Structures are given as C-alpha cells and as structure tokens.
Amino acid sequence: MPGEVVGPLERGLAVLHAMAANPSARMRRSDLTAATGLLRSPVDRIIATLLRLGYVRADGRDVSLTPRVMELGNAYLASCGLVDALEPYVVDLADELDESVSLAVPDRDGARLIAQAVRRRAMYLAFHIGDLLPAERSAAGVVLAGGWEEAEFRTWRARRRADPLDTGFRAVPPRDGAPAEDESERLLRSRAAAARRAGWALDEEWIEPGLLAVAAPVRDPADGRVLAAVSVLTHTSRHSAADFPGHVLPRLQAAVGRMETALRQAPRPAGRPTPTARDLSESKDELGMEFLESLARGLAVLSAFRSAGGGLTISAAAAATGLSRATARRALLTLRHLGYADSRGPAYHLLPRVLDLGYARLSSLTLTDISQPHLAELAALLGESASVAVLDEDDIRYLARAATSRVLRMDITSGTRLPACPTSMGRVLLAALPPAELAARIARTELRSLTPHTLTSRRALTAAVDAAARDGYALVDQELQEGLRSLAVPLHDRDGRVVAALNVAVHAGRSTPQETLERVLPALRDTASRIEADLAAAFAYAPLVTG
C-alpha cells in the first residue's frame, strides 16, 4: 500500500491538518515545517497549490485556512447521507423541547458532531459541527461505545495513554487530573453496557459542571447497527439529573423513531460541481512547478464525494473529476491509507475524520468574519472604503468595514445604522423583499431630504429600488451625504437568497457616476462572488450567522 500512496496528497493533507490543529488561526511556513516534519521547499509548493485552490489565504509570511476548505468536510457531510436525512428532526426536537440537540457519529474512539440545533442562553457550552468529543465524557460517546468491539477499546486505550488529559480534544476542557487507566476503562465499559441495555445514556456533568445531556442511538433500519447518537443538552439551572431523563426521553425516542423511518427513504444527495482535470491543468500551466497537480487531483477526488450518497467507485471518481482511472484509484487508496476514507466492496466512502481538516475550527465563523478579509483586499485594490451590511427594520446595520486612509471619509464602524432608502446597500436589500413587503416599507417610511439630491418621492424611490433589482446593483449619488457616492451589490447565500449587501464608497468629486460604475462594479462583483463562495462552503450545513 505505501508504494501506491500519492506523496503530495499525503503531505498536503498533513499541512491542512496541522493548520487546523494549531491553536492560532495563522501559521508561519516555518511553523508548518516544524509541525509536519516536511522540508521548506515542499511546504512552499503545497501552500502555493492550496492558495490557488482557495483553501488557504496568505497575509505576509503568515497563512491561514479559508472557509473554502470546508468544502472537504461538506463532501463527507453530504455523502454520509445522515445530515440531509436527519437534521430536520434534530431541529424539530430542539423546537419541541426548547433545548439544544446534536447528532454525533462514531469516529475512531470518539463522537463527532455532524449536526446541531442550538439554544443560545446566558449559560451554554459552545460545540460546533466537526467537533470531536472523547467517548467517556459524553452521553453520545457512551451510547456509541455500546457497540464497540475489542479493537475500538484498544484504540481508546492507546489514545488515553498518549493524551490522558484530553488536550487533543479542542471542544472540551482538559481534565484536571488523569484517573487511573484501569478505572477509566472500567467506568467506560460499565456506562456503555448500561446504555446498551437501557437504550439511552445520561451525561451528569461529565464534560463541564452544570451540563447535562441525554443521548439515544439511531440505528440502521437494514441491519440494526448504531449509526449515530442524538443528544439533548441542558443546564442544571433548568433541570436536575433526576428529572431530565423523564422530561426528555419520550419525545427523544419518538424523534429517533421518525429518524430511522426517514433513513429508509433518504434520497441521494445532490452535490456541487467538482473541479475537473481541465481546471487543474490550467492551474498547472499558469503556476508551473509551484502547482502540485497530484495534490489538487487528490483533493478533487475527495470533493467528488459531495454527490456520492452511496460512495464512489474508482470509475465514478474518474468520471466525476475527468481524471484517469489509475489516478483516481491512487487518490482513493491514499485517502483510505490515511484514515479519511474506507471501502466496502468496490465503493469507497468518506469517514468523519475528514472534518479534522479545519471544519470544526471554521464552523464558528460568521458572515462578518468571512467578509472582513475580502473587504480589506477590495479596499486595498480600489483605494476606497468597502463595507457589508444587513437590513434591520427600516435601516441598514453595518457588519464589517475596511476603511482607507483618505482625508475625506465617513466615521462608520461595525454596528452603525443608517436609513436604508438613501443608501446603495439599503436599496439592493430592499430590492430583495417581496413586492407587498417592499410597498409597505416605502409607504411607512418618512422620506426626509438629507441633501439636495435625496429622493423624497415614493414613486421615484420605488423606481430606484426596481432598477436595483433589475440591474443587480445600486448606485446612490450624494443622497445620504453631499460628496459621497456609493455603489452596492447583493450577497447571496447558497440557496440564492439575498442575505447582505456589499458596497464601495467614493468621493463624488473624483469621478463621474459612469466612471465610478466602470471602475468599481467589476471588482465589486468579483469580491461578492468570492464572499458568496465562502458563505456556501461555511453554511452548507448550518444556519447563516451574521455576527
């Protein structure tokens, strides 16, 4: 097997894993050589390739993961079939109980979170999709351990010896002290056996003081295997360990029954297009020796699982990517060798470990976090201020901004509110509203003359908003403040809904409106498309958070 491993793919995945595991969001290339044991030259070529693919971002000598790398984790979440089939029931259960609910799958000797519906209160434990929990410290892990064979317990023992304080589990607080290994194993086996007999487990503050959880297994309707565990989480300020199971279990078990029924008729997922061999060859032509085509090909094969609900055969992987069967085969064998995939018969399927490639670290990002670096690049490119805002009642509320050092500028920060009607971002956001809601908003809005240019006629304002909907942008010239011209475009989520607006503000005296349009609009649209690609990756399996 090692002779068939694709070396650049193995090394590239090692770099991504090291960046995801690093406590800091950024790493120097020298840090990556130390973390991976690779020489500087291959690290530089790997980074050049990942930059081209959009998986990392460079800021001087530092590099960081981008939301686009979450496409790799999305390939697992799409191909496993569990999230698409079961997440609606997770959300329904959370609504019914008014508690946080999560779905976890077995991953080696731990429980990996793949879906959740969170109730954010003054006190809650912030888990994220992709987080790995130690089996012995979570109700979900204990339920999943109920199906372990001796091989899994051996893996668990080896991990406990290597990391007795659980410092490798970023989602949970480290242990204060390490209990004796024999005592830990005895306790885990006892809890797992009790969960297997009862059909559920209670976490009595195992992870954090005050946190309670009840978990139940979701089984494969075909063979009875435990596929996942559903957990309901609460705080001791709301329930006690004595009353929580009785309060939760009837509805939890009913939800599990509906989930198992849904699994019988779960459709195959429909994924996004996979990079093709032609795309990769063009990158190779442009970057030359700096572009590791075999790394890019391997990541393209991994991404192809997005549309492979039943797994991928070698032929299917080759067809999805445009690669030869031999190339696709070696990539699949490498993924299996590294523990990111497994095979049953001729089909390969991804394993939850793929979520280690930055998913958990990045799944807490908000629209604000994602937009900010793109705004900085846009502002630097044009030498003008750039912003992102959302509609908030009759105003726009700024989420992110990158200002320039020009003498003439507006004092706007995150959280600043401005009236929607006389602003470019407001108009593209209003243009996305249903016609009846738009008409009602314009009818109730007090149209004040802020400058001699401000539209104060409802008919004229309606026409301007209609033009923004038709053209896909809004240009507002000195209506909010004399001397200020702004141009905005909408930002869409993965389903095509307008969720925010992106704009660039310029001084009206430096150019005509048409010159502003010709200079700014192409860059503005290009930046919007890159932000939208990041949003699609980051929020494919989670509700969009504005921040």
What does this structure look like?
The protein is α+β, with helices and mostly antiparallel strands. Helix content is 44%, strand content 19%. The chain has 19 helices and 17 strands. The strands form four sheets. Strands 6-5-4-9-8-7 form a six-stranded antiparallel β-sheet, sandwiched between helices. The protein has a six-stranded antiparallel β-sheet with strand order 14-13-12-17-16-15, with helices on both faces. Strand 7 (201-204) and strand 8 form a beta hairpin. The chain is globular. The relative contact order is 0.11.
**pLDDT < 50 runs, ≥5 residues:** 268-273
Helix content, binned percent: 40-55%
> Using only CA atoms, what is the Rg?
26 Å
Q: Termini distance?
A: 46 Å
What is the structure about, briefly put?
By secondary structure, the chain is of the alpha+beta class. The chain has helices at residues 7-21, 29-36, 40-53, 70-80, 82-97, 139-145, 150-162, 181-198, 244-264, 277-287, 293-303, 314-321, 325-337, 359-362, 367-382, 424-430, 435-444, 458-471, 513-538, and strands at residues 26-28, 56-59, 62-65, 100-107, 110-117, 132-134, 201-204, 211-219, 226-235, 341-344, 347-350, 385-392, 395-402, 417-419, 474-477, 484-492, 498-507.
